[in-house]
């Protein structure tokens, strides 16, 4: 269900909590429907944005099961399984695959040094996971560099089906990978962009097959993809530009997830914007700024989710 | 000439080079005129964007002298003097002030640990510089955190006149400082925003007196300030939003300066987009992306500089 | 059972694994006896050295229960509960205290910025843990700085009973804390040194009440404490110096735990030197170097554990 | 004068200052004589320990000229030329070679990401320097990883004559390089150990040709090399062990250089222990600890330098 031909918008889902910090499974259902209604080609859960390190293994599997059951095969569900040890990674990956996940996403462990150490780590992780593998390239968080040439070597393992490309800046790397593929030096991967959607038009023009991000208006991401693929670049850029102020607000490090949950709540997609502690709180000023941007967006885009 | 009432757009100038890497003083003149024509309230040189660590002390002073002479007192010139040792900081600061600089900008040394160490370092730097002092708060580069309460303590020294506020995210800190001032807990500083202009409307709404950044269309920054101060927030945001795609492109770490020099060259403001080695080179794809954004901007904004 | 008068050697215990990576509870028993026989005043489990991030919550509690039951009240057991979220921290802390732990050790979360943020985090952690609290000051790993003045403020909460002082260099900070205590500016804490034992004589001379470390010959640490407290500094230093080559070998970042488990296995204290993957493997050359140092030590110190 | 057969102890010299921070050239002479009298096979100046980033270009060359003139060809002098830009690197390298330096030492620029970027940077630096090249591998400071395989590729350029190997832990890397050489996969380099001398016996046993470090008793380093090469490992270790407490004290990050200058002053090798600001100051407690260790050493080793 997840292979190297995957394309479109994979929405990264947050983990909704009740005000007391417990899992909010009702919101999980509603959110799942909203993302599918928005045109998601896939859903990704338990990534950084899913507060995965703050969940117990049991909570992770409970939430995964709920989302996968609700999706009911309509789109593939990718489950994040990055962990300090391979034992936990295996437990999450197996549990998720048994419950119907389509693939497992892993980021190299922070602190890996030198190309060979990174390649070796990912090779081991693919053995541990033993399922369709999504490689997350997010050096702003992992502090691990993966060049196009390194990814080409990793892609010799057929389990590596998808690259979540969110190095920053990363557009030239995306071009380099597509060039290596065109030269026959590596198999063609599904590549989805990231970095919060900040470079979606450029990513698609460079050859990305779509994007995997948690921007709170996934229907815009879907529409931009359609316009780009229809050759309507100016129209795509016009739509993208209308959202860029909010995108910019959501990618602020340390604060972005709180803003996204606030927007998703305002859209009625989740019931509460609770984050698990420790976590930042939005000030009234920040909420006012987001409200202002939402009001501007509402002139052209319905605030309420389609679902 | 630089005091706590300073406001407006201080343009951060790059250091122009000839293709062989030597100082391009003719471009320095042209650039200076262009920035003043664009409405700059001040010009800042020899910052990070000025490739200051790649200049000899003599080159730094030669360039500073040229810019200051050309400005001829029309606006204040701020000169960056961050250095690994206080001896060099003093040499640059004295040399610049003797040549007519209005103030000196310093960032805390990377690696300082703990609030007291940072406060002590800045107190010493103010002694060393002994001139109107601009504190650069740019933790993405310095890895040094300065809270509102710390800045309040530093502001007890009357030489601290201006804060270049570019923590990211940093809007709530800006609000906290203005609150401490309103409560009489610290004197009122001139605060200029930063982070490449990405949050200019919000910074102004939070109480910034302007912005200090090197975005390649400073006339837009000037106009946004005017509109905001005239209470025309929607118009300000409309103009800002039109530039945000290019702003986003210019703030990419490691690549941004190369893009800015490319845009300034295309605008005729500097003759060459040379960076001193080691430095990244723009790919044709990146240049194409910038060209596309410039063409879109040109519909509403003249590409050629006013000067 | 753990209060501000605690003193002596708290041995940091590794988590023993069978060759297949499962918990080795028989070794846990043997190790516990060996450490008590060596003169430990306390045992600390589930710290960094205990590979805690690679254990599931259930494994952590199983291991804690086994050690605590074996200790049977002879010495206090401190349990590490650092975690990305407070929910997990609470779960481990409560589980450990219910099983008979004497206190809980927590390190500030990596990435905290500014003194106030750190103080606030620890205040919240003390609420979450709500038990005798051991503050781990290990900035080489956490990248969080805690000055003497910050620790003084934290110590206003009576739950903070012990500081594991392993900043590096950290001796002047230790002196500063003891000075603040002497001046009545903070209550007297139990302070145990760390950094692998590298500065044990100096730590004791500066006022530490003992040491908390995992050096594989805890009986030496105990003896050095006794000699120092008996005023026999030269003798203490002589004994310490004999072990310093091995101490130096054990503190190598990334490699140290593998070496410690190897030594503990050679001493018969644990059955296997298995680390959970991903983990480094010792080369024959490294094992040879350790063997050589053990042979030299054996001239003065029995290799086999007393237990 | 510096080639791939170089061996022995290259002493890293500090830059002596007068109490007012000016260069102390008289101490430079005395220090140079002391290091040669101690048996130095070479002298390295303007490294990290030489406070090079705190010197102007002119001061650097003045100091280099003084040391080189005093050495008068008795041993090779290596000059550090790491710099943010290649223009400065070239200026220091040329100036030093014209004055009689034997080689130039460079560390990869901090922030380089990925093996290829590092290899490319060093290739460019060798072009810039165009002289016998000493590669400094000190990732604790540069945050750049260089594996054995990367160094093998760099060694294809015959200008790379020496590796200053101070990764930590780095002994297995040293073995890997010697293995690649033995397998004919790279030419044999001169490899000198480092990390303050902490692993000198092991480095030599692993195949290092000597050591390049600034430990304040270079005559011990020389003697340990001689004993190791004469097959007297136990004697070498005995001598080394006697110094390890002081070595351990000198390698403390941020504090080490102040301690080394203090010891060199106490030995009469330099006149003042001045560091250029900003710099840490030794507390009386730290000085007392160093004095105690010096007194212990004096039982077996004369405190006063031979020169």
Can you tell me about this structure?
The structure is a homotetramer. The first copy, chain A, is α/β, with parallel strands linked by helices. In chain A, about 45% of the residues lie in helices and about 10% in strands. An eight-stranded parallel barrel of chain A has the order 1-2-3-4-5-6-7-8, surrounded by five helices. In chain A, α4 (about 115-130) links the parallel β4 and β5. The longest helix of chain A is centred in the last third of the chain and has 18 residues, at about 235-250. The radius of gyration of chain A is 18 Å and the shape is globular. The model of chain A has no long low-confidence stretch (mean pLDDT about 95). The interface of B and C includes residues 139, 147 and 149 of B.
What can be said about this structure in brief?
Chain A is α/β, with parallel strands linked by helices.
Q: Summarize the biggest pleated sheet of chain A.
A: 8 strands, parallel, barrel
DSSP helix count of chain A? 12
* Poorly predicted parts of chain A: none
Could you estimate the helical fraction of the residues of chain A in percent?
40-55%
* Strand order, sheet with most strands of chain A: 1-2-3-4-5-6-7-8
Give the integer mean of the pLDDT values of chain A: 96
Number of strands of chain A: 8
Largest interface: A-B, 27 and 27 residues
Q: Strand fraction band of chain A?
A: 5-15%
Tell me the series of helices and strands of chain A, N- to C-terminal.
EHEHEHEHEHHEHEHEHHHH
**Span of the ends, CA to CA of chain A:** 24 Å
Output the structural class of chain A: alpha/beta
- The shape of chain A, in one word, is globular
What is the subunit arrangement here? Answer: homotetramer
Instruction: Report Rg of chain A.
Output: 18 Å
């Amino acid at each position: 269900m997840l292979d190297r031909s995957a394309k479109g918008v994979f929405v990264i889902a947050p983990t909704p909590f009740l005000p007391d910090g417990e899992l909010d499974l009702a919101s999980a259902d509603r959110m799942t429907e909203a993302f599918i209604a928005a045109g998601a080609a896939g859903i990704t859960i338990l990534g950084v944005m899913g507060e995965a390190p703050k969940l117990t293994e049991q909570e992770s599997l409970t939430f995964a099961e709920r989302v996968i059951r609700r999706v009911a095969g309509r789109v593939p569900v990718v489950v994040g399984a990055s962990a300090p040890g391979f034992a936990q990674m295996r437990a999450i990956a197996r549990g998720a695959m048994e419950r119907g996940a389509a693939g497992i996403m892993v980021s190299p462990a922070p602190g890996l040094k030198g190309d060979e150490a990174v390649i070796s780590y990912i090779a081991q992780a693919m053995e541990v996971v033993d399922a369709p593998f999504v490689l997350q390239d997010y050096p702003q968080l992992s502090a691990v560099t993966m060049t196009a040439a390194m990814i080409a070597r990793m892609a010799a393992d057929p389990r590596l089906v998808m690259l979540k490309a969110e190095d920053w800046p990363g557009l030239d790397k995306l071009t380099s990978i597509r060039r290596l593929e065109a030269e026959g030096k590596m198999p063609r991967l599904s590549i989805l962009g990231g970095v919060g959607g900040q470079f979606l038009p450029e990513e698609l023009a460079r050859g990305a097959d779509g994007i995997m991000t948690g921007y709170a208006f996934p229907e815009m991401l879907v529409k931009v993809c359609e316009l780009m693929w229809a050759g309507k670049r100016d129209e795509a850029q016009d739509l993208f530009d209308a959202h860029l102020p909010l995108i910019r607000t959501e990618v602020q490090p340390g604060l972005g997830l709180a803003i996204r949950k606030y927007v998703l709540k305002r859209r009625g997609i989740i019931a509460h914007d609770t984050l698990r502690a420790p976590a930042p709180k939005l000030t009234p000023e920040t909420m006012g700024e987001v409200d202002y941007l939402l009001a501007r967006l509402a002139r052209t885009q319905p605030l309420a989710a389609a679902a």
